[in-house]
Every structure is written in C-alpha cells, then in structure tokens.
Write a structure and sequence with these properties.
Length: about 600
C-alpha cells in the first residue's frame, strides 16, 4: 500500500527500503526487493521478488494560517453554507469559514468532512466559479451582444469603455481569488485517510481531475507567456518609458494606472502560484492511493502537465513546491507495475527526470545563498532518483535506461555525493544525501540486470572506469546498505562478455575479495539487499564459471580464487579455535 502521509511528512528525508531476502537466478541476476504502490508485484522474468509500497516524502510548508473558526462551526454547517452561498458576499464568507475550519492536521476530522460531503460541495462551488469567470472572459452572453446596436453605441464611448475594462479586470481578479481559496479548501479536506481519499475520488475525481489539469495548464501558460515576453523584467521600464510621453496634466492619471497595473499583477502572480501549488497537491493526494495509480497515469494530459511544470524554466518563477509535488506524484505512480513501461515510454518524461537528477552540480552548490535553497535542490534530486529507481524495476525498462548515458552518469554522481559544504546546518542535509545514494545504488543494481550486451556497454562507461567507480563506492561508502547494493550491481554485471574486464581490474577484484573474506555482516534496518559478503562470494563463483579453465584469463583468476579459499579456511580455523577456548569457560560457569 502506498504511503499516504503526503501532507503529514515531518522529515525532509525519503523513506527507506524494506528488508527481505532475494533469490538468485542461474544467470546471476540479482535485485533486492522493491516496494509497490498497492499489492505485491508479479515476479520479473529473471528473478522472483516482492514489491512493497515505496514513495517519496517531503515536507511542504502550509500557506499562512487563517484564524481558527469557532467551535460551533462544524463540518456539516460549513458544508451547508457552501451549498447555499450564491451571492458574492455569501460565497466568500462560506469559503473563508471552510478554510479556517478545515486547515488542520487531524486525519479523523478530515474523514468526517468527507463523510458529510464537503468535497462534493466544494467541487460544485468550484465549477460554478469557473463558469462565472468564463462568462466574464467573454464566452457566453457577451458574445451574443457584440452585434447589437447597444453594444456598438457603448464601444464609441472611449471613457466608458475604459471604466468597463477596469471593472471587468477587477471582477476577473476577484473570481480568480475565489477559485484559489476554493481549491485550497478542497486540498485541506483531502488530507484525510487514504480510504476516504479513494471515496472522494470515486465521487468527484473523474470530473475534477480534467478541470484541475486545465487550470494548471492555463496558469502555467500565463507564467511561461510572462517569461517569454520578459514582462516580469521590463514592465517597470516600459511604464516609465510611456510616462515620458505623457503631459503633465495626465501625470496623476498615469500614476494611478501604474498602481492599478502593479496591484493587478500582484494578484495574478499570487493566484497563479497558489493554483499551481494547490492543484498539484490535490493530484498528489489522489496519488497516495495505490488502487488509483493506474487510472491516474492513464488520465489524458496528466503526465504531460506534470512534465511541463517540472521542466519550466527557472526564470518563469514556477513555485518550487509545485515542481516537487509533480516529482512526488511521478514517483508514486511509478510504483505500479502497470505504469512503469507506460511512463518510461512517455515522450520526454525520462529526460525531464534525469535533468532534475543531474543537479546540484558543483556550480549549483557554490551559487546557493542559503541552506534552504540547497535543500530544495537535493530534495528534488532525491525524489527524481527515487522515481528512476521505481521505473528501473520493470524488465522492459532496463534496456532503454541502460542506453541512457546521462541517466547512468546522474546515478553515479548521486551515489558519490557523500559530503557537502552545507552539511551540519541542522536541516537534514546528510539524511537527504544518504537517501539519494541509496536510491541511486538501487537503480544501478536494477539497470545492471540488463541483457549481456548492455552489461558490456555499461562496463565500458567512463573510459572503462565504470567498474573502478563502483568498487570505490563499495569500499568507501559509510552506509552498509549502499555498499550492499553496489555489490549487488557488481554481481549483476558479471557475464561471459564482462568477465575479462573484471579480471583486468585489480582494484575491483581486491574489493570483491575483501568483502568475500569478511566474517559476513548481516544487513540491519529495512535494507532490501543481501549482504556484501554473500554477494561478493557469489560474484567470485560467477566469474569462475564465466571463464573456461583452458583460457588465459582463468590463469589470472586462479590466484584470486586461491587467495579467497585460503582466507576462508583461515577464518574457519580461527572461528573453531575461538569456540574451543570458550567451551571450558562455559562449563566452569555452570
């Protein structure tokens, strides 16, 4: 079952993998267990494994808190007020009370709000507001009046037309603000349990989702249009240039227009940001429910909209919360086996995720002004790498992911990122870096289970230094789970085509021998990977089987195997000696 703490995440880190065993295929393909969105995942063609829920969590600050409504304003009363509110004054008062009453973190109370139909009432209220705004935008009665004599007469009166335009703009801003608060109210109600989210989706989801996607597209489009036209940078200069051509008699009027434009732009920016953040949050609530993930991923334009929000230019001022919400949704949807192949084949989606996973670069880290800015980057990367990890589970995705060189490079860079200048600021930087390394190592492990020709291609990356890079991770990373997963990656890479490359890398063999001759530590916590000791032993045995004894490469491997056998024999003798020395002491204590 998918983790349903989308809104109640209290730590900036991502959740960890679960601990279960893993069987091994005769072709020495190894993968640890990966979690699924709802039920157990069917076994992959090369390895039997169980998938449990695995999602990305991150903490998003709530908007400014409204004053708490009085105790007598119950969910039932608030819902009735929304249903009966038609006039502007009644509508605004009802939604203000709704947002004040519903803005809390008590899941049981949100469940009660769903039971009395608050979600349905708010959604119907939203559709009314959208219809009203469309009428103000000229889609409706106003169109039918364009050809009338009265309309033509009004158009001749310039001053009246100017007043009318200002009034329409004010009305449009007011309606947009109502739409924004209505979306916020719906998001608050959906902070309920996953079961009630499912109930709500089956009530309103099929109608609400296309409307929310349309709103996201509309307000994202406004952001991008502003970015393209350079309005955000040049608006003040343009107004000043226009003022220079005005007479002194119209100076006060021009200043008034400038103030109105500034106020209008401020309202528009606030509403755009809020709708992008709240709309993606609502979709994120639906994505908490495992049974809904396939239907969500199949919704027209959903993946495209998520991709466009994530990939919007930084200067377009798209809120970072909405980008992270979209990444979170993608990571959750990728938990479903039915979605993995569909999502991997969606045009541009993998490239968008890889682009996020490729940051921060060293320049990004140097340019960060504060730790919160840095946290936003590494949180986004951690969620993106988690999404790649989920997508890499499907056997059909291993080849395209193995062919994506930028993806592999991003995973290697993430797996090597152990320290930062921002570590130690008390904001969880080290925890996020650790989670990112675990996800990257798990994704590398899954991708390494690709067919033989792609194993060979992977081993040739970084000018033939790919194996040495993995060996360094397996030896130097302080986290046992990361080391275990990297040893699983090495194990998966062994084949008849790559055995020679292993033999030629002394540093790689030394790391494998050291792990194989250790006393065999047991994985702790919720690791989903067999221990490094067990995997290193199996890697050596696989190399021995992959090289015929009559070939020269086997002669190079023979000393390694002899060293391994002698070390194992020594370890056994030391263990037996220790047991023999402890036995008399044990008897004397009786």
């Amino acid at each position: 079952m998918i983790n349903n703490k989308f809104m109640q995440a209290t730590i900036p880190a991502l959740s960890l993998d679960s601990s279960t065993g893993g069987s091994h295929h005769p072709q020495h393909i190894y993968r640890g267990n990966v979690r699924t969105a709802a039920n157990e995942m069917p076994p992959a063609p090369v390895l039997k494994e169980t998938r449990f829920s695995k999602v990305v969590e991150f903490d998003i600050p709530n908007p400014c808190k409204r004053q708490r409504a009085s105790a007598e304003i119950t969910a039932q009363n608030v819902t009735l007020a929304i249903q009966y509110g038609v006039l502007e004054k009644d509508r605004k008062e009802a939604m203000y009370n709704a947002c004040a009453a519903f803005d809390h973190g008590v899941q049981a109370a949100h469940d009660d709000e769903i039971r009395v139909g608050a979600d349905t009432a708010i959604f119907k209220h939203l559709t009314f507001l959208l219809f009203k705004r469309n009428m103000l935008d000229g889609y409706g009665i106003a169109d039918n009046l364009n050809d009338t004599e009265d309309c033509k007469e009004n158009e001749k009166q310039d001053s009246s037309s100017k007043v009318s335009e200002d009034t329409d703009q004010n009305h449009d801003n007011a309606i947009t603000e109502e739409i924004t608060s209505t979306l916020e109210g719906l998001e608050m109600v959906l902070r309920c349990s996953a079961n009630c989210v499912s109930i709500s989706y089956h009530r309103i989801g099929q109608e609400a989702l296309p409307i929310i996607l349309s709103l996201l597209q509309q307000h994202l489009g406004q952001k991008l249009e502003t970015y393209k036209n350079g309005v955000s940078k040049n608006c003040s200069n343009m107004i000043g240039h226009m003022n220079s051509f005005q007479s002194t008699s119209t100076a006060s009027t021009t200043m008034s227009d400038k103030e109105n434009l500034s106020c209008s732009n401020s309202v528009s920016r606030h509403c755009n940001d809020s709708i992008l953040k709240t709309g993606t949050k609502i979709i994120g609530h639906f994505a908490r429910v495992g049974q809904l993930t396939e239907e969500l991923a199949s919704t027209k334009y959903l993946l495209t909209t998520l991709k466009q929000i994530i990939s919007a230019p930084k200067d377009a001022c798209v809120p970072i919360e909405s980008r992270m919400n979209c990444l979170w949704i993608i990571a959750n949807l990728a938990c479903s086996a039915d979605n993995m192949i569909k999502m991997a084949n969606h045009p541009g989606l993998i490239d968008t995720i890889v682009n996020v996973a490729s940051h921060p670069t060293q320049k990004d880290e140097d340019d960060c002004q504060n730790v919160m800015e840095y946290l936003q980057i590494i949180r986004s990367r951690s969620i993106a790498v988690r999404a790649i990890h989920n997508l890499s589970w499907a056997q059909e995705n291993k080849i395209p992911l193995a062919e994506h060189l930028d993806l592999t490079e991003a995973l290697l860079n993430t797996a090597s990122h152990r320290n930062s200048d921002w570590t130690g600021h008390g904001k969880g930087v080290s925890t996020i870096l650790l989670q990112s390394r675990r996800h990257a190592a798990a994704a590398l492990r899954n991708i390494a289970a690709a067919p033989r020709r792609y194993k060979r291609r992977l081993c040739r990356l970084r000018d033939g230094g790919f194996l040495e890079t993995l060996a360094e991770f397996a030896m130097a990373d302080p986290d046992r789970e990361v080391r275990d997963k990297i040893h699983a990656t090495l194990y998966n890479l062994v084949s008849a085509d790559t055995a020679k490359q292993f033999i030629e890398k002394k540093a790689v063999l030394d790391v494998i021998i050291n792990a194989a001759t250790s006393m065999g530590e047991h994985s702790e916590g919720d690791s989903d990977c067999t221990t490094s000791h067990t995997l290193a032993v199996q890697t050596l045995r696989s190399l021995e089987k992959a090289i015929p004894e009559d070939e020269d490469d086997y002669d190079a491997l023979r000393p390694v195997l002899s060293r391994f056998d002698s070390q194992i024999a020594m370890n056994k003798s030391q263990t037996n000696l220790g047991m023999g020395m402890s036995s008399p002491l044990g008897r004397s204590g009786l």
